[in-house]
Design goal:
mainly alpha, 13 helices, RNA_pol_sigma_r3/r4-like, WH-like_DNA-bd_sf
Length: 234
C-alpha cells in the first residue's frame, strides 16, 4: 500500500492529475459510495434539489484539493484515509448550508450525541408507518426510499443478521423506514461505518468525536434497526 502511495509524489511532480486520481481511487474505493449515499438521502429529504449535485463531481473536487495541497503526510495510508473522508464531510456540509434548508447550530458535539441517543431509545413503530393509508395515498409526501442492495447487504452484516432477510419486500421497506428515522449524526456515522468501512477509531477521527460516543451511537443504531425488523437481541 505504501509503495502504491509513493506514486502520488511522482504523479504530483510530473503534474499528471489523471494518474494521481487513479491512485486515490484504487486506494479508497469506498469514498464515492459514501458521498453518493449522503447525496441520495439529502435529495430524498428535500435538503438539496434533485440531480444538482453528483458524487463524481464532489470526489473529483476532493482529489483536486489533495493534488494541489499534496504533502509527504499524504503518503501515510491512515492519515490520507482520514483526510479524504474529512474533505468529503466538509464539502457535503457546505452544500447543505448553501442550500439554506437548515441553520447550523453551535451546539457541543457531546450534547448532540446525548440528544440523538435519547431519540434512538424511543420506541419506533415502522409497521404503523407502512400501514398508514394516508401516508401511502398522500402524493405530496416523498415516496419511500428503498436502500441500495449493496448497502442493504452490508448493513445486515453490520447488524449481524442474515442477508436473506432482504428477500422479503416488507423487510426492505422496514430497513428503509428505520434508516430514514435516524437522526443526522447517527446516519452519518452509520454510513462511515457501512459505506466507508471505517473503524470506530477512524470515524471518531473524521467526525472529531470520542470513541465512546461513536460506539454508543452505533450500538443505538443497531438496536433501532433490529427492533424495526423484529430481531431484538434476546
Amino acid at each position: 500500500m505504501t509503495q502504491s502511495l509513493q506514486a502520488l509524489k511522482t504523479h504530483r511532480d510530473t503534474e499528471d492529475r489523471q494518474a494521481f486520481n487513479e491512485v486515490l481511487r484504487q486506494f479508497l474505493p469506498q469514498l464515492r459510495p459514501y458521498v453518493a449515499a449522503r447525496l441520495r438521502y439529502a435529495e430524498h429529504a428535500g435538503l438539496i434539489p434533485p440531480r444538482m449535485y453528483f458524487p463524481s463531481d464532489i470526489v473529483d473536487e476532493i482529489y483536486l484539493e489533495v493534488f494541489e495541497h499534496f504533502s509527504d503526510a499524504d503518503l501515510d495510508p491512515k492519515k490520507l484515509k482520514i483526510r479524504l473522508f474529512k474533505l468529503a464531510d466538509a464539502k457535503l456540509e457546505k452544500i447543505l448550508k448553501e442550500e439554506a434548508r437548515w441553520q447550523e447550530r453551535k451546539v457541543p458535539i457531546e450534547d448532540i450525541v446525548r440528544e440523538e441517543l435519547k431519540s434512538l431509545e424511543e420506541i419506533f413503530y415502522p409497521e404503523e408507518m407502512l400501514d398508514d393509508i394516508e401516508y401511502r395515498q398522500d402524493e405530496y409526501r416523498p415516496k419511500l426510499l428503498l436502500l441500495e442492495e449493496g448497502f442493504e447487504g452490508d448493513l445486515l452484516d453490520f447488524l449481524e443478521l442474515d442477508r436473506s432477510l432482504r428477500q422479503e419486500a416488507r423487510n426492505r421497506q422496514l430497513l428503509a423506514r428505520a434508516y430514514e428515522s435516524l437522526p443526522p449524526l447517527s446516519r452519518i456515522i452509520l454510513e462511515l461505518k457501512v459505506n466507508g468501512n471505517l473503524t470506530v477509531e477512524e470515524i471518531a477521527d473524521v467526525r472529531e468525536m470520542d470513541v465512546e460516543e461513536v460506539e454508543a451511537g452505533l450500538e443505538a443504531v443497531k438496536r433501532r434497526f433490529r427492533q424495526a425488523l423484529g430481531q431484538e437481541a434476546a
